[in-house]
## 1
Amino acid sequence: MTESSATQTKATAEPTEAELSEQTQVRLAKRERLIESGHEAYPVSLPITTTIPAVRAQFPDLEADAQTGVKVGVAGRIVHLRNTGKLCFASLQAGDGSRIQAMVSLASVGEESLSLWKELVDLGDHLFVSGEVISSRRGELSIMVEEWKVAAKTLRPLPNMHTELNEETRVRQRYLDLIVREQARNTVVARATAVASLRATFAGHDYLEVETPMLQTMHGGASARPFVTHSNAFDTELFLRIAPELFLKRAVVGGLERVFEINRNFRNEGADSTHSPEFAMLEAYQAYGDYNQMADLTQELIQNAALAVAGSHVVTWADGTEYDLGGQWDRVSMYESLSEASGVEITPQTSLDDLLAHAAKVGVEVPHPTHGKLVEELWEHYVKVGLTRPTFVMDFPVDTSPLVRDHRTKAGVVEKWDLYIRGFELATGYSELVDPVIQRERFVEQATLAGRGDVEAMRMDEDFLRALEHGMPPSGGMGMGIDRLLMAITGLGIRETILFPLVK
């Protein structure tokens, strides 16, 4: 046990409202006392000269009881506090979790300053200290304080730094999670590192990053229920986008031959361990590419991100499991793998009645059943659970993929893949449908499904069809959830990978 953590001011992981109110009143009184004594509770600036991580990097191996002669001014949050007679200790934590000990002695600061310290400084306060960098008698890197100032007075106590926060608190009060838990901070860094890697990989392939509308007059680009809102300025119904696809394709029509976007999507659907109503999405389109090239690109994107975050293609998940994202990933046919797993030959020509009978036999229910929906649900029932390695599932039914080109050699399927990692769908890729005549036919089929009550069916989008009629080159496209990418690399659930997830 270090000097700064030997004892600490009482804090509980989940104090009652009465306790919070009482402690807040005490801290409010200390705030007033600070101001009355001529100090600021929330100063606008402080004479900071360096950071806690920089000091630790500069003096990594000081011997016990050493002096450096180097004076610094740093700031951090107090996460441990011990007050004794003539010598007080505080552990200051920087935003990255690194810490340094502040030693406040009567000899260095004087009687009045030491008395104010004991009276007014609490766990959780942001504090500025200046003084010489030393090593304590126990070898802990420290600052012998000559001057201190409260940088921000906290009115609520910190949770106990040695007690695990419950999931409810971690999600609803992520700021506390970031203060207390190293993994929470590391996840934010991992996400930023992964996204930077994605952008670097795209830059290496001459892609342009673009932005497309999130408020749309026509939702499309995916099969999903949208959030609906109203524009007072335009007096019209608007939708939060469910996908950027149709606008990114417009960009390709306009001559931007390699484009990608990383931004938010919104789907008014369920929330579980792999789904969030608001999520970050990557989509990319490449003129003169196809779904095979997009699969190659997707594998490269993910492997590069894993390397950037974990330093290896073999990643270690939060539960300690190792998972290998390296090598060449498997590619399997949806229909062939379903037939093999079920023991019954299922093809694009299998009738709807036969599929309904098979689904009923194994307890698979599908609202608004079509051939494609039944095939996909049966595939999930039989095949998905057995996938362990990263796997591209190739060649989907036509009726569930209205924006995808027909397969060049296989009747009744389209050139689409879904990538499964860790048991969930991480990404999808297409050889894009660029024929405006066939695209119109597909939209008409979707409108028929919508008329039968399918709320996820796409609408007829005349403006998008007009763009296609100006000529879109043969193209490949892909989409991948950023939150799910972090799930694949870290092994965490989706609410852990989103900094501030939507909660009920």
## 2
Amino acid sequence: MTSTVPERRRRLGRVGTALVFVVLAAMLLPFADFRLGGHDPWAELQRMASGLLSPDFSSIEALGWAAVLTVTFAMCGVALGASAGFALAPFYRFVPVRNFCIAVRSIHELFWAILLMQITGLSATTGILAIAIPYAGIFAKVLAEYLDEGDPRPAAAMPPRADLISVHFFARLPLARREFRTYLLYRLECGLRSSAVLGFVGLPTLGFSLDTFFKQGMYGAVAAVLIIYYVLIGTMRLWMRRPLVPVYLTAAILVMAAMPNPPMAPGALARFLTHDILPAPLRSGDPGDPGTWAHFGDWLWTLLAGQALPGLAATLIVAQLALVLAGLVALLGFPLTVPPVAGRLGAALGHVALVIARSTPEYMLAYIALQIFGPSMLPAVLALGLHNGAIIAHLLGRQSAHLHQNLRPDASRGIVLYAYELLPRIYGSFLALCLYRWEIIVRESAIIGLLGIPTLGFYVDRAIQEIRIDRAVVLLIVTMLATVAIDWLSRKTRAAIAPKDLRQGAAAA
């Protein structure tokens, strides 16, 4: 009896937490802009479907080169980010290092690309650094967590005078080497998605080809781009073999070196750091004059009230609705991958659908939905909900498959198995995974503003186009603070509703 009561309270807390998110989403629904564009979405969807069903590979040479560049940007960016994260991981426990990693990974790759283009232009350097900078913060965090979860006894057995680096390399790192290699492969898959999306800001990856063909209404060529992209992602574990990694990386570096790189303007970096990002009132005024600071206060308040707060509100509305949609997609999607529930054919089709939804970047999904429904919050919510829901459903499906193996031979099947056996057992994992994806959804909601949806990314893009880098930096800081706040709230909520083993399992997933 004593062990049952806390479990019931914990389950009640989990259900109550889910209801809070659903109720909050329902309260925000009237404030969401779901207006359809001026065109007929179903007619546009029909034209798009007609083209997608007849892929046009006439530009296969150009698409093949775009695929090669997608891989090379990803490999160089992930390699550089992993190297930096590897160097930062031993020091992640120190507050300045941890805050630095949080700051760089809370800003999306597209935002980094837009900022870097002000310094390095539209070049290979921009693409590589746009991936490497946020990935460095991610790698440092994940590797530090792997190290902390390892057996502490080897480190304790080191000589008392052993320095931090020696303890790291000889006592802690060997215990996490296998997990880090596995995560490196997963992060490379993420890097391929990030590399493809960078094409939407002009870099010559598959995203650039997709954007070009969409604007020209060439839906057959769009289908060809998507097929090449899915084949690239789907076969990655076949062609990415450990002995070939040095060969691939060397080839990627050679390809990047052969790309035309516009020379950086003399003093561009110094001007960016000392002039462009400095708020306009401080740039043109005397810092010793109180009037300068009064002008700066007015400038900052106008920016916050006129752009940052409306953009932040739209970002949080999109994120909250997308989170609930992702949860719904996960609950409905994961049983479709379990043969005892959906049947063998249904499970195979369910796996294919989830692979497509989770392999397609949110930004790319939102871009496609934007062509159908027009510029509103609807494409953003649909894209974020489908992508993140598919990721959660995939992980829950794998967990459910393991659970089913441990059930009785005469266990029920179909909807009864789902409702009475699987769902109660994996509900805690479902909620923990949703909370893990919450911070990512907020981050992605901000970047979708680059498509014209008035989230924070919309105002950042407008400031960049107006060459007001100082305003863009302030808006990016607001984006970073919002992401950090959501991450903190998510961790606190997980700690309150999930036992330690559940939190660790979700983190590993």
## 3
Amino acid sequence: MNFAYHQILDIAQIKKVLEKALAKGGEFAEIYFEYRVETTINISENKIKTLNYGISPGLGVRVISGARTGYAYTDDFDFAKILNVAEVASYIADSNSKIKSVNLEEKRKIKQIYPIEKPIYLLEIDKKIEWLKRVNDSARSYDGRIKQVDINYHESTRYFWIANSEGLYVESDDSLFRIFVVSVAIDDGLREMGVSYLGGRYGYEHLLSNSPEELGIESAKQAISKLQAKPSPAGNFPVVIKSGWGGVLVHEAVGHGLEGDFNRKGISVYSGKIGQKVCSELVTIIDDGTIPNSRGSLSIDDEGTPMQRTVLIENGILRGYMLDKLNAKLMNLESTGNGRRESYRHYPLPRMRNTFIDAGKDNPEDLIKSVKFGIYAKSLGGGQVDIVSGNFVFEINEGYLIENGEITYQIRGANLIGNGPEVMKKVVGVGNDLEIEKRTGTCGKDGQHVPVGVGQPTILISEITIGGTQV
């Protein structure tokens, strides 16, 4: 890709912008430039409903003064306009101190931790559409009770550079895509939905090496199987949650509470508990930005900090939080490489990357066999969580009843209801089958959405409330 805008400022101009940003007494200034190319395709009702292609270059200037952040951005690269953006951001500070000089390093190119030889944007649009239509056709032809299929495709390729008043000057790029397939089955007044996914930080060879027919059938098959499901029992039961996407429970119910800003402000259930036992000794929770090809992996975060593996909870003991530069500074700690932003229109926040429960020693089949009567959650759906209390509600997208150690029949209408920290204390089994779900995760916070990965091995929770339709 020809990133024609990447030389919009030379080093001398960058220094002037940073110095302008610090003119009111700010402690730290940063320029973030981005050139992003995105494609979105939606197929619904057997036709292409939307097809969007966009190029969005832009630049943002951030100034930090104490705990305050000033941020302004522009997509007009006239140098005078950029200086004006820096001046606007500078007003977060109110000191009359003299302008600080800035000495920049030579710009460094940060190589990706996952090589992508053929970025997805290089594949012709007609080939992408043909592939997606095959997904649609296979899902619809699987069973006559499939009445609707929706396919959403999104790809994004980004080049960016970051320069700051501490002398950092780095550039990098990344690319990812995601396909989300929803099949709706209707029979005798009952309506059920099945989903399937494909994606990650891969090149187009990964798309072409996967069968579109299998992706469509996976979605349709799940929807049809749920038509035969029985109403879920309600009450307090042991629950086995399958490896992989089941980690979304940890992401939502625990992960957000471990982000630095909530803990600096003292509003998280985990605030002030470093070194204390906060969950079962079987549980180790990690946030890792270096897992190859996962949506939450990058070479550097959106502040230029190298990605790393961060142990948050080790054998039940809280070890640390996920930190960006601002919150790390205010807490007298070091950034963990968790400063992330949706685009140049946003300043970075401490966000998750790939958050998961680490592998244990149990055989997943033994965990199921140990349950006399309970629930097997093969796939979780959407959910809600309160960061302050840790209370959550999660839909079980695909679940089964466990009776006398065996999976018997499929259930529908089940929800997991509980409190994140309390549920983590009730983990009594952790499988040896760790799986990171790299394909589809997206996390929202303060109006910003960023790609993430989730994961876990199969886990057994001794008791959790199931909201069902059968008492």
